[in-house]
Specification:
With about 90 residues, the protein is an alpha/beta fold. It has helices at about 20-30, 40-50, 85-94, and strands at about 35-40, 55-60, 75-80. It is an enzyme of class 3 (hydrolase).
Length: about 90
């Protein structure tokens, strides 16, 4: 498993625009079915990742709710990054 961080501002395209995620996917030659995106913004991170076929881990620190008519659901939701290590171990086992 490889963890890579990218910053949208360096690409000149804002999240959740799918082009940003596709640029990263193409440059890193990622398989969308095996790619997980971790983010704390439902709209920018979960929607962006799911719209290009990636899995999404939502760090929902503020216990926010997903909009009722949303097309996208995170694959996993955690409260803080302290839960992330255990979740990653669980994902690797499966």
């Amino acid at each position: 498993m490889v963890i890579i961080q990218f910053i949208s501002g360096t690409c000149g395209i804002a999240k959740p625009h799918t082009e940003l995620f596709k640029i990263v996917q193409n440059n890193l030659q990622l398989n969308p079915e095996k790619t997980y995106y971790i983010g704390d913004s439902y709209q920018n991170d979960v929607v962006g990742a799911k719209s290009v076929g990636w899995s999404a881990i939502w760090v929902n620190r503020m216990n926010r709710t997903i909009p009722e008519k949303s097309l996208y659901q995170p694959d996993y939701t955690i409260r803080d990054t302290g839960e992330l290590a255990e979740l990653v171990r669980t994902i690797r086992i499966n």
